[in-house]
# Entry
Amino acid sequence: MNFKVGDEVVVITGSDKGKTGKIIKTLRAENKVVVEGVHVVKKHQKPTGQDNGGIQEVERPIDASNVMIIDPKTKKRTRIGHTTDTKTGKKIRITKKSNEKID
# Structure
């Protein structure tokens, strides 16, 4: 999975198609991501010692294949590529449409 926490992504399929948001959490073992404001469900919480309980809205994970990163230059969705930095020799992420460095 090529996504990191803080990446700006757009949902490309499903009931939340077209929504954008930042990645809050990545679940690499399950190949899923949690996106802010996407796939929001209502959760019924029992009262505990600290909380009163009630109905809360929480974001649930969606599959990583259902989101694409937003290109910082063109503001459109794009794929992620990899290349090596010529100065440091480290592997970096780039956008396929404009070859902009991500991060």
About this structure: The longest strand covers residues 20-27. DSSP finds no helices and ten strands in the chain. Residues 73-103 form one domain. The two ends are 16 Å apart (CA to CA).
